[in-house]
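Researcher: Good morning. I'm working through a list of sequences from a screen, and I'd like to move beyond sequence-only analysis. For each chain I'm collecting a predicted structure so we can compare shapes side by side. This is the next one on the list. No need for commentary yet; just the structure.
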Amino acid sequence: SIFFFVLFSRSSAKLVAPLGCLVSRQKHTLPDLPYDYGALEPHINAEIMQLHHSKHHATYVNNLNVVEEKYKEALAKGDVTTQVSLQPALKFNGGGHINHTIFWTNLSPNGGGEPKGELMEAIKRDFGSFANFKEKLTAVSVGVQGSGWGWLGYNKEQGRLQIAACANQDPLQGTTGLIPLLGIDVWEHAYYLQYKNVRPDYLKAIWNVINWENVSSRYATCKK
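Model: Good morning. Structure tokens for this chain:
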């Protein structure tokens, strides 16, 4: 019927743009580190950084490209079953890529200390003090069972900072709605070679290389 045709045409028009983007998309690539592998020593050693970036992050990127290719084929065939079955791999590898891309910029050889300006004001407003915030984020990160991440995020609806933990490679924004500002990787591959199974020692050390300029700039951007 004419009614069905009009309805179908409208819904097709909505699908054309996203499908077109997917078909012509660029492959994901491993971002360069903004510093040398050994630049964060003694807090995170060069061997960890090299393996973490060139092996672990690279694997997430490669797997994400493979999964997206399969997803594109399933979309083209209208194969919803395959699309659904690919979701966990998309979440895991996509999350791994998103999380690490943020993580590298959250760290700096010139990091440490305390943030300044608007971010510091927001931390004091939402956590009482910087020391209190640091203690809370450390405790949440230490408490992650198995593998995962501790995050400082921005709740846009409430206009405030929030601390959250994510399991495995679950991306913060995609799973909680919070905009990621600062992520702390507590997978064993992020610290085991240097700190063995003592996660609290790694978490104590990482505060010396937190890039507050990067976190502040993320905060300023998401408030716009």
